[in-house]
Design goal:
With 446 residues, the chain is of the alpha/beta class. It folds into three domains: 2-139, Rossmann fold; 142-376, tm_1862 like domain (pyruvate-formate lyase- activating enzyme); 382-443. Helices cover 35% and strands 23% of the residues. It has 14 helices and 18 strands. The strands form five sheets. The protein has a five-stranded parallel β-sheet, sandwiched between helices. It has a five-stranded mixed beta barrel with strand order 14-15-16-18-17. It has a three-stranded parallel β-sheet with strand order 6-9-10. Helix 8 (175-187) runs parallel beside helix 9 and helix 13 (313-326) packs parallel to helix 14 (353-376).
């Protein structure tokens, strides 16, 4: 079968689709680069907010329009929350909830013989010569980084969150399995592995006996036992990190990326309590201070919810001041979305949309300002940049414009000669100017 993958939402969704693509390709199926080329479209949906639900529905409609003949298999959090809505959409032939997601390769197998037979007919040109479809690689090989799912589910019960309900209790993969997957990615030429999970910081604590582990032990094993050039952590809840966790960066300063994404969600203690977050502004401040003291050139990013039920003007003002103090380089900002099935959906003090939109704009202005200040700190410095994609031709000068990410998650642009391919290369760049949220610089070839 010719299969196209699409997804929205968290990095965990991307990791899951990379793993499924590898399984299907090893079974003899072809992963194609566009929905128009596919017989089967697999879509991994999201339900983190009402907006994500709308985006999931819109994306499915767009996929069907792009290829009305393709069979669509939909999975993920929105499909788990609203399976009947998903099944009713045009083109959808299979709905797999999160607890069946790992069975997708088997669930699709009954289609294989039928679609492979049909494909043989379409591959024949009028002159009887075989047709070779466009080549495409799996998402992992096409990308410069591999998203490695090490854990799923969550034991926390934040009052705003539906995702933990949809993904179940915390479940970790055995450490040797993760090491093997990261080494396989390194051998395939991937330059950066990103560890993902719903609650990454809880990794390993649900494993039994000698298999019990934690995130610190996993990171040490990956950097000791694999050849991956760069290792990055995705979202880490700001609690439950092992003693001495930040010491890891001193042991592997060139490979463990100096970037932490610590979801704060709110900058006022009253809101944090109402959200059932297991931190306070004081504990978060101490954590950030410890991290910045231990990790040179650390960049910090976060998630923030604005307009949580009961948020007063005083709460918002206090939160705004704390967020400015934390100097986040970037934040995913969400107006509160009441999710059916969460405690916060029934809370008193639900705020009107215009209040949430006004506060969102003010919060965005603060994060934009702190982000600019954080990026400007690195002007004049050289940072290692992992380039990706295709260089863009320039109309007014020779060469091509390339983009990449530094180890500490700063977006960088540079110009290279037209005959130089920078894709998947890790090179130092001297950062010279800042335009918007992109740093520009000069590449330093060895």
């Amino acid at each position: 079968m010719r299969i196209f993958f699409d997804q929205i939402g968290c990095r965990l969704n991307y990791s899951e689709m990379e793993t499924l693509a590898a399984r299907l390709r090893s079974a003899g199926h072809t992963i194609v680069a566009a929905a128009e080329q596919a017989q089967v479209v697999i879509f991994n949906s999201c339900a983190v907010t009402a907006g994500a639900e709308r985006d999931s529905r819109k994306r499915l409609a767009a996929l069907h329009r792009a290829n009305p003949q393709a069979r669509i298999a939909v999975t993920g959090c929105w499909a788990t929350l609203h399976p009947h809505q998903a099944a009713a959409l045009p083109g959808v032939a299979l709905v797999a909830s999160n607890d069946r997601k790992e069975l997708l390769a088997d669930l699709l197998e009954p289609w294989s013989a039928e679609l492979d037979d049909a494909d043989m007919l379409t591959r024949m040109q009028p002159d009887g010569l075989p047709f070779t479809p466009p080549s495409a690689t799996t998402p992992r090989i096409a990308r410069t980084r591999a998203f490695i799912k090490v854990q799923d589910g969550c034991n926390n019960r934040c009052t705003f969150c539906i995702v933990t309900t949809l993904r179940g209790e915390s479940r970790s993969r055995p450490l040797p399995d993760v090491v093997a997957e990261v080494q396989q990615a390194a051998e395939a030429g991937v330059m950066e592995a990103v560890l993902t999970g719903v609650h990454l910081g809880s990794y390993g604590r649900d494993l039994d006996g000698a298999a019990r582990s934690d995130l610190k032990e996993l990171i040490a094993a990956l950097l000791t036992e694999t050849d991956i050039p760069r290792l990055r952590l995705s979202s880490l809840e700001p609690w439950e990190l092992a003693d001495g966790f930040f010491d890891l960066w001193a042991r592997w300063p060139g490979r463990l990326c100096p970037h932490l994404h610590l979801p704060l969600q709110a900058g006022a203690d009253r809101q944090l309590r109402a959200m059932a977050r297991r931190c306070t502004t004081a504990s978060f401040r101490r954590l950030v201070a410890d991290a910045r003291a231990a990790i040179p050139d650390l960049i910090l990013t976060t998630d923030l919810i604005v307009g949580f039920p009961g948020e007063t003007d005083a709460d918002f003002a206090a939160g705004l001041a704390f967020i400015e103090e934390m100097r986040f380089a970037h934040a995913h900002l969400f107006p509160f979305s009441a999710r059916t099935g969460t405690a916060a959906a029934a809370f008193a003090g639900q705020l009107p949309g215009d209040v949430k939109r006004t506060r969102l704009r003010r919060l965005q202005a603060v994060v934009t300002a702190t982000g600019q200040q954080e990026r400007a700190r690195f002007l004049g410095a050289a940072r290692p940049v992992l380039f990706e994609g295709d260089g863009q031709p320039l109309a007014d000068q020779p060469g091509r414009l390339w983009f990449g990410l530094t180890d500490n998650y700063l977006r960088v642009a540079t110009i290279a000669p037209a005959d130089v391919d920078l894709h998947n290369r890790l090179l130092p760049v001297r950062l010279t100017t800042l335009a918007g949220d992109v740093l520009h610089g000069d590449i330093r070839f060895a």
